[in-house]
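Internal QA ticket QA-208
Title: Verify multi-chain structure generation after dependency bump
Assignee: T.L.

Test input:
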Amino acid sequence: MTTQTFGVYGGRYVPETLIPALDELTAGWEEAKNDPAFHAELRDLLTNYAGRPTPLTRVERFAPDRRMYLKREDLMHTGAHKINNALGQVVLARRLGKKRIVAETGAGQHGVATATVCARFGLECIVYMGSEDMRRQKPNVERMNLLGAEVRPVEIGTKTLKEATSEAIRDWITNVETTHYLIGSCVGPAPYPELVRDLQRVIGDEAREQILQREGVLPEAVVACVGGGSNAIGMFYGFVEDADVRLVGVEAAGAASLGSGRTGVLHGARSSILADTDGQIADAHSISAGLDYPGVGPEHAALRDSGRAVYLPCTDEEALDAFHRLARTEGIIPALESSHALARALDLDAELIVVCLSGRGDKDLAEVLARR
Amino acid sequence: MKKLVIYLVCEPGTPELAQAAVEGGADIIELGIPFSDPLAEGPTIRLASERALSRGMRTAECLQVIADVRSRVDVPLVPMTYAAILEAWGYDRFVADAQAAGATSSIIVDLPVEEHQEVKRIQLVAPTSTDARIEICSANTDGWLYLVSLTGTTGARSEVSPALAGLVDRVRAKTEKPLYAGFGISTPEHAATVARLADGVVVGSRAVQVAEDGPDALRDYVRSLRTAIDAAS
Ligand SMILES: Cc1ncc(COP(=O)(O)O)c(C=O)c1O
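Actual output:
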């Protein structure tokens, strides 16, 4: 079976135990992708359960000197784009006969989305979360518990997303026969980066149609924050063929895997990662738990190398300023992750911009208020 | 005679430990080059790797440890690590430097058989491996084949995996190469059980734990494994 790679990036650097499961997943996804029944089921769930399509909102007070639109993934059920992927993967997992779901989570948004779809389909759900993230995203831990998921604290290393991902993969290695690993971003071994991209591209496809309807032209730039890169790749894919549309990814300055990383292997894929010269993974730092990750999806590394997309850094302070500004000027409280995209969009030299508002900020209130 | 393979993490004190393991009857020593995010490891080896890294055991230091072990013992030394280490060091360069340090072959836990075939290495197969995978892995393995006896990560277990016997049968049908089984094997009783099924026994996590008590403890422990294996086979 061929392994999907993105130029020199991607692959499946995992123990042999998992290779048959990845083969099975690849075959299952190929089959589902070409099955109208799969798309009909997913479309129904996205529309009637989760709230698609999401609106495109003009933000005149936030960005008075230009035409800026927000793609409102914050209005999705559970409050972020993560549910697009969680729904798609759970429908797929059911086709593969898996009864148990494991996931990792950083900000808790992916964990909540996974716990939600597992509740909806009556599947056992285990979510690994770094104990530091459990502290800073407490409301999401409570939501997951309420939804019937088991949140397992990870006390290893930095106690954040990197370690939670490693532990979720170790659980998968142990329980692979019964379990689907519902990865939360376009990272991990093939076919995950491609699978998650295909499930998130609904963001960009909708946004393209909506901006054409509203403005009659394509935007000069689309902007999205990049943690693992799933909301960004979903947004970008709507526009990647439109050569004149600039694709701008925004990383946390302290977790800039694309901006200041090097080629290496983490969590099953070769990509651009924060690591030392020996390949040992370095610590990332961000106020935003969802961006606090030293790796990034392999396709973003390829898009960076080809020049098709650019990736800019944003500091914690800049993100916080944008967070407050959007709340005060538009009555929308953004996720801290999305606030990174908002901050860079404000100073981008472009007139017509679409920003992916990947999630809402309720989960971040305690963290933000503690800073002021 | 059935083989006994002992795994140790590369540390400054490892040459002395490796010598003790060989004195106790180890036929092969696996030398772990620690990686910060080792997906196949349970808590014991993960923590031992973290400890080694915090003491500065990077690739160059580990290669030096391999050379130091080489100067003390005659048995094959097999570096065991993750693809990230070779990515950073360079695949060809790693092969050359490991060989220069006195290593025999290598085990790269997360490098699938299709990738970087220029790196001669011992392949692993697991209970989840399909017959097709078993065939490719045994055809490409360098010397012996590593049977991952259980579906899971490394770490001492209370009994030998019930999946091992079936795996041995499936692999035997595909290859004549020696089959050494590891993961979860920790007591002399386990070692004896495995020695009746496979051509060799690999002991990792428990050896790493015992090594914390020093060379004498490790020598005694390895000797107890050796005695049990020889009595069984
Ligand atoms: C609201 C929100 N946006 C963005 C991210 C970052 O993930 P990705 O880069 O995969 O979109 C997260 C992750 O937790 C998130 O919760």
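Spot checks passed. The CA atoms of residues 29 and 38 of chain A lie 10 Å apart.
Status: verified.
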